[in-house]
Specification:
With about 260 residues, this protein is α/β, with parallel strands linked by helices. It is built from eleven helices and eleven strands. It holds the Pfam family AIRC.
């Protein structure tokens, strides 16, 4: 339950449109809904401004269906991450109130048009990094942020980055996604005056160690203003970037 829903219920009680027992019924699952196999944190949006996010990898299909149906019933706009196409094919029949993005591997639950604020640039070193970048971008858009995508501008052809620098420099925050040696965030952070969130990807040859070399490069960057998330963690980068962008835009988190 988010702040707007809570406020609406309280206003209806105050104005006599909703009796106290009915209001209590709506509050019964605060702080969480116990499904035995899962405890859905419906209080999270009230605490931190964003609803619970469902990580789908490893979940039993029937468990996942019950979780999604409960969230759909409450008309909560939320996302389920790391959902494979195979998993989506198994659950898509449960409701038409879901949109699946195969590239980002994200399912948006109860999608709705929301006012988007500020601007976040999502930048990749190469096209192979795009799935991770899209996870960040879709997360940002679902949470109400304007996103500009600048893909395939890595350091092997750095002129491509310079020719797109105007799109990047006027953003409130930048998500820089790169594999291989992971140099892109350091280069960007040396050219802009806003926070850069570095996302190492598992893209690369053997000594890349499935993203470890990119992660270490980003952690050891001599350019200030960089924070680093885990390997392939586009969602985490998008979440942090949303908090930063909304703070810069004077909107705080989702109300």
């Amino acid at each position: 339950m988010d702040r707007e829903t809570l406020r609406d219920i309280l206003i209806k009680v105050k104005e006599g449109y909703l009796d106290i027992d009915s209001a209590l019924e709506k509050f019964k699952d605060i702080p969480f809904k116990d499904l035995d196999f899962a405890k859905l944190d419906y209080h999270r949006a009230l605490r931190v401004g964003y609803p619970e996010v469902i990580f789908t990898e490893g979940k039993d299909i029937e468990h996942l269906k019950h979780i999604l149906l409960d969230m759909i019933k409450r008309e909560i706009t939320a996302i389920a991450t790391r959902m494979s196409k195979d998993t989506y094919e198994k659950i898509k029949h449960i409701s038409d109130k879901m949109i699946y993005n195969e590239l980002a591997r994200i399912l948006v639950i109860n999608p709705k048009e929301n006012e988007k604020v500020g601007k976040v640039a999502v930048v990749t070193g190469g096209t192979a990094d795009i799935p991770v970048a899209e996870e960040a971008a879709v997360t940002l858009e679902t949470f109400g942020n304007n996103v500009v995508r600048v893909y395939d501008v890595g350091v092997a052809g750095i002129h491509r980055l310079f020719l797109n620098l105007d799109k990047i420099k006027n953003a409130n925050c930048i998500v820089a996604v790169a594999g291989m040696e992971g140099a892109l965030p350091s280069v960007i952070a040396g050219l802009v005056d806003v926070p850069v969130i570095a996302v190492p990807t598992s893209i690369g040859y053997g000594a890349n160690f499935k993203g470890l070399s990119a992660l270490l490069t980003m952690l050891n960057s001599c350019a200030a203003g960089i924070s680093v998330v885990n390997i392939d963690n586009g969602f985490g980068a998008g979440y942090i970037a949303s908090l930063i962008n909304k703070g810069f835009s004077g909107n705080g988190v989702i109300k």
